[in-house]
Amino acid sequence: MYDHRRLGRELDLFDTDPLMGAGLPYWLPDGAVVRHALEEYVREAERAAGYRHVYSPVLGKRELYEISGHWSHYSEDMFPPMELGAEEVVLRPSLCPHHALIYRSRSHSYRELPLRMAELGGMYRAELSGVLGGLTRVRSIQLNDAHIFCTLEQAVEEARAALELIGRAYADLGIRAARHRLSLPGEGGKYVADPQLWHRATALLREVLDGSGVPYDAEEGEAAFYGPKIDVQITDPAGRESTLSTVQIDFHQPGRFDLHYIGADGAKHRPIMVHRSVIGSVERAVAHLIEEHGGAFPAWLAPVQLAVLPVGQAQEERAQDVVRQAVARGLRAELHGPGDGTLGARIRAARLVPYQAVVGEREADGGLVAVRLRDGRRPGAVPAGELLDRIAARAGDRGAELWAAA
Predict the structure, then answer these.
(1) What CA–CA distances, in Å, run from 354 to 278, 292, 331?
(2) What's the Rg (C-alpha) of the chain?
(3) Are 239 and 200 in contact (CB under 8 A)?
(4) What does pTM read for this prediction?
(5) Which string of b and e fits 200-219 if b means at least 16 CB within 10 Å?
(6) pLDDT per residue as tens digits for the range 17-38
(7) Which DSSP letter does residue 265 get?
(8) φ, ψ for residue 186 (rounded to 5)?
(9) Rounded to whole angstroms, how far apart are CA atoms 277 and 90?
(10) Phi, psi of 129 (to 5 degrees)
(11) Where do the H-state alpha helices sit in 90-147?
(12) Nearby residues of 199 by Cβ (< 8 Å), 6 or more positions away
């Protein structure tokens, strides 16, 4: 059983420092590689699905969150306001109010809808120190978030497509969904008091789930304060469950921000706001991937994709040339030379690297490399260029198989 907190430090992926503060991890170079690869994957998937990306600030005036409803329903989880002259600004706990303002800043026609707006953006939650741990409970969160502004008639299809996008991402990342949950309001006063809003949104989300053929459990007390949501649940090796991805249909915030579009009849109409997150927070996603793969990431996510190991100093120059060729092709390759220990010790040290290329005297003379795969297979000696082509192809299509048949 893997613990991402231990593995993350052993593999030099991330760490914390008391002077930075609890719940505020920093990313070391290898961890930053994993994070960057994951973020780029999500951006590419979103672009292919018709999303356009924006950037918005991590601060907002208190008034913004009073309008959105966060201040009255969620302020205990927010950081205290900071005074700037006569104004109060807050570290944002959510991206949706900012995206609502971006939508509102321009007029929109029904012909533009659905308008899919995405961002990998920072947000902050004032978690108590006792619940903080590793990357799963943090105060600084990088959220893969998006908001789709659409007509009522488009809402179910857009939410269904978002759920499908989540499923494809899980397949590419090697993540298994434990179950799907329809999260409904429970007893208590943290929810928006609008029964019609809840009824309409819940009916649409049930239609999404039923139409997708996804088994789900309906549970009270897990909804967002402004509406119900579909939660995609995952479990860690200890069996603890958490939410990674969400899809929501929101009637509340479009009204709070007076959002509208011009319909075919020339009149103003209120859009629906579909919230969705493919991988949730980058921190939680990486934590789960560390534990799911035991640090042996798929080749496209691995911090180092190829370790080149010259047998002796006489082969070091040739090995370095292979590294240069790999880097020129956009691969992440490192030289593990004789100065790092015996060949056996270097092979063991690089056990989590998907590909190892051993360069002995025979290989150096023939322009070859002896290939060793992380799963223990040894395909034999191949031309260096062929190996690099194979790695680039595997990384490019994000395949799980390290050595597909030629």
Answers:
(1) 26, 16, 12
(2) 24
(3) no
(4) 0.92
(5) bbbebbbebbeebebebeee
(6) 999 999 999 999 999 999 999 9
(7) T
(8) -125, -165
(9) 23
(10) -60, -30
(11) 96-104
(12) none
Please state, in angstroms and rounded to a whole number, the distance separating the CA atoms of residues 192 and 197: 9
Number of other residues whose CB lies within 10 A of the CB of residue 45 = 19
pLDDT tens readout for residues 387-402: 999 999 989 888 778 8
Contact in structure between 96 and 253 (CB atoms under 8 Å): yes
Yes or no: say if 149 and 108 are a contact pair by the CB < 8 Å rule: yes
Rounded Cα distance, 331 and 395, in Å: 9
Q: Left, alpha or beta for 309 (phi > 0: left; psi -120 to 50: alpha)? A: beta
Q: How many CB atoms lie within 10 A of CB 19?
A: 6
- Could you tell me the maximum CA-CA distance found in the chain, to the nearest angstrom? 78
Residues 6+ apart with CB under 8 A from 401: 394
97, 64 Cβ separation under 8 angstroms: yes
The pLDDT-based confidence of 189 (bands split at 50, 70, 90) is low
The whole-angstrom separation of Cα 84 and Cα 320 is 55
